[in-house]
Amino acid sequence: MLNSLHPTKQTLIKSAVKFLETTAPEDITGEQILADSGISKGSLYHHFADFPDLIEHAQVYMFSRYVGFSVEAINTLLHNAKDRESVLKGLQEITRASQSPNLNRMRSIRISAIAKSIRIERMRILVGVEQERLTEALADLFRESQERGWGNPRLDPKTVAVFIQSYTIGKVLDDLTPTHMDEEKWYLLIDTILANVLFPPGLKAVDA
């Protein structure tokens, strides 16, 4: 997402992201961003409609970054895997990394971006474009796994991509509660779905 943007715009978004990692969006000021980035106010308003527009772009970047990590990890796994067992083992590791309690703030930021997109049209457009890109990336990876004889051929790749991302929604709900579920039981549930529904045993490669 960032690599295709003007360097000044990249710098401003990166600065906003740094503040968003520890501060609520409404508590961040334009003066803080300008001082941190070294960018002038004129340049900020040249690249963004207003200060909230910059914050929205930064939130969308953080929104996509969370899923992007998993997409990259799954892509690497599939290209290095030799069989179904190695795929499942790698996915179990990715699950534990992406669902870790240490990432609860990243999950809440993603949900916050989704909620904000419901109220603000320009945010909805930004999130919608990025969400489509991420979903298609995951769908392509599952489609590849089907072709290699690991992914369930009865399942629609895009539907699977959306389902995989729904893990995050469930985890956010637990993050909010004072008494959390057992992490290992959560991982066991996901592992079971992966091994018996998404990547069941006894499949054959899809004919080209």
In a few lines, what is going on in this structure?
The protein is mainly α and 208 residues long. The protein is 74% helix and 0% strand. Helix 5 (84-98) runs antiparallel to helix 9 (183-198).
Overview of this protein structure:
The chain is an all-alpha fold. The chain has a domain at 58-198: Orthogonal Bundle (Tetracycline Repressor, domain 2). Helices cover 74% and strands 0% of the residues. It is built from nine helices and no strands. The mean pLDDT is 89.
Largest sheet: none
Can you write the helix and strand succession as a string?
HHHHHHHHH
Number of helices: 9
Strand tally, please? 0
**Average pLDDT level:** 89
What class would the helix/strand composition place it in? Answer: mainly alpha
Could you list some keywords that capture this structure?
208 residues, mainly alpha, Tetracycline Repressor, domain 2, 74% helix
